[in-house]
Amino acid sequence: MSLVAIVGAGEIGTAAARALAFRSRVDVVRLIDGQESVAAGKALDLMQAGPVRGSDTRVEAAADLSAASGAAAIVLADPAGSAEWTGESGLGALRQLLKLGCLERAILICAGAEHRVLMQQGLDQLRLPRRRVIGSAPEALAATARALVAIETRAASNQVTLVVLGNPPARMVIPWAHASVAGHSIESMLTASQLHQLERRLHGLWPPGLNALGTAAALFCEAAATGSRHLFSAFASLDRDNGTKAPVCAWPVSIGASGLERTTSPTLTGRDRVVMDEVLE
Question: Does residue 254 sit within a domain?
Fold first, then answer.
């Protein structure tokens, strides 16, 4: 049985639960929040909508973090009626999940746009396993970029392939040389000026919307639970060539049951290398 636990029944957590329930690729979604009645109401609503969508995914509610035990993936989202987990409260939630043993086998997916800092704290202070801690927000931004490219090229967004690197929005890199539309190079379809304008627009579109953040987290959960060959843009801390650990930033990765299964390093322009060198300082 594939189980996904979502910590927080706020807007991001609910969006992740909705996407998982409607896509019906995991068996159980468990929505965990201290306000159990709120989580229960949202779980019931999704369960009632399941037959309409042809989904048989079971959506449950719980109040205690111990309910995350046994999950293939745990999403750190946002508490009901509050913003995403950050600072001491976020670190406290991670510490409790670790103490309960919930993170021994599960992949931790940090769904918030501000979770890069929290991930770094969890890795440095709690010694969380680096290959099993992943942030999904960059994928939401990459999806927005694909939609904008699709509009410019008059294509479908699912025909666009691109990834986001760095620390959005200020230090963000899109390696256009590796991007394509229906197998054709984007650089052969759009001018340098058009690509520059797309990048400028994306800088203003961070953070992504709450529904986009939740949906991106759901895609990561499915990859962790069922496997995927898809390349995602994700916050992660990777091994450097000299053996040290890179700070948490966005990289193109593939995700599976073991967490980060494969990473790629696209060829960058001189300008992009300068940005990434600043990110990795």
Answer: no
- Give tens-digit pLDDT for 260-278: 998 888 889 999 999 999 9
| Average pLDDT value for the chain | 94
Asked if the model's pLDDT at residue 241 lies above 70, the reply is: no
Amino acid occupying residue 278: E
pTM score, whole prediction: 0.95
- The reply to whether 59 falls in a domain is yes
The answer as to whether 279 is a domain residue is: no
- Are 53 and 22 in contact, with CB atoms under 8 Å apart? yes
Domain range spanning residue 37?
A: 3-136
| Sign of the dihedral through C-alpha 108, 111, 112, 115 | positive
Q: What is the domain count for the chain?
A: 1
Q: What is the 3-state secondary structure (H, E, C) of the chain?
A: CCEEEEECCCHHHHHHHHHHHHHCCCCEEEEECCCHHHHHHHHHHHHHHHHHHCCCCEEEEECCHHHHCCCCEEEECCCCCCCCCCHHHHHHHHHHHHHCCCCCCCEEEECCCCHHHHHHHHHHHCCCCHHHEEECHHHHHHHHHHHHHHHHHCCCHHHEECCCEEECCCEEECCHHHCEECCEEHHHCCCHHHHHHHHHHHHCCCCCCHHHHHHHHHHHHHHHHHCCCCCEEEEECCECCCCCECCCEEEEEEEECCEEEEECCCCCCHHHHHHHHHHCC
Q: What is the CATH number of the domain that holds 70?
A: 3.40.50.720
Banded model confidence at residue 250, pLDDT cuts 50, 70, 90 = very high
Q: Could you tell me which of 203, 148, 194 has the C-alpha nearest to residue 173?
A: 203
Residue bearing tokens 């109401």: 41
Range of lowest pLDDT (48-52, 96-100, 110-114): 48-52
Q: Evaluate whether residue 105 is within a structural domain.
A: yes
